[in-house]
Amino acid sequence: MVLTTVFGRWGVTSFHHSALEISTSSSKGVQVNVVFSILIGAFLTQISTLCTSAYLHRGLAHKAVSFHGSVVFLLRLFLWLTTGVRAREWAAVHRKHHAFTDTDNDPHSPAQIGWLRVQFTNFWLYKRAANDPITVEKWGKDLAPDRYDKLLFDKGWLGLLTTAGILCGCLGWWLGLLAFGFHVVSYLMLSGAVNAIGHTFGSRPSDNSATNLHWLAAVTSGEGYHNNHHDAPTSAQFGRRWFDLDAAWWLIKVTEKLGISDVRKVGGKK
């Protein structure tokens, strides 16, 4: 009777310990999976920001760099999968921003409506301008849609759904949606930060309303050197010092060295 009681208690205690270990192990496994999914989302955001800066911004909108055909297709394909942006609309809205910087006609000016509003409603401000056919026609008249746009790239929703499906297939549905959601939100927030914070806080070495911020440049592939960019819009190089964190410029220089891009000369320099 005593032995039965002792072994019974030992068995119950062992069971509790085992259950606790399994629960702890399971909890740690979930935490690792969540962190991994967030890192995947953050990685997608950084690559998307890099492609946006190098191709949509410096290449398409300002003609500061010209990528060769196959590179352009790959950049467009990746942006279709991760942003759903229509290239012509993006370039048109951005050109209008430069034409009317921080005035009433600027599509997203913190000087007019406040930086917090631009930060958190930048997507809707952009869509309002992008959905205006007059804006797109006037500022994107040299960027007529090609066969790839009509067939695929103008269907941004399809690209985003494809990416969400791939992530869910690889990570499981809820971790896939977590990675996708983190990417979408962080991409929108970084885009908003360039237009909001990049016109409000930071240094102004050149005489324009945009600003330079190293930390913003670090997380936006060089877009944080916004004052430099507004000073020389057709320059593919935003960071001007050797230690400036201009990742899109580094990518452009690599493609130039490989002979798959041509950089526009500005002031006698590339």
Could you name the key traits of this structure?
270 residues, two-stranded antiparallel sheet, mainly alpha
Q: Which class best fits the helix and strand makeup?
A: mainly alpha
The percent range for strand residues is: under 5%
Order of helices and strands: HEHHHHHHHHHHHE
For this structure, the quaternary state is single chain
Give the overall silhouette.
Answer: globular
Instruction: Work out the helix count.
Output: 12
Largest sheet: 2 strands, antiparallel
- The counted number of beta strands is 2
Helicity, in percent?
55-70%
- Integer count of domains: 1
Tell me about this structure.
Helices cover 68% and strands 2% of the residues. It is mainly alpha-helical and 270 residues long. It has a two-stranded antiparallel ribbon. The longest helix is centred in the first third of the chain and has 60 residues, at 2-61.
What's a concise summary of this model?
With 270 residues, the protein is mainly alpha-helical.
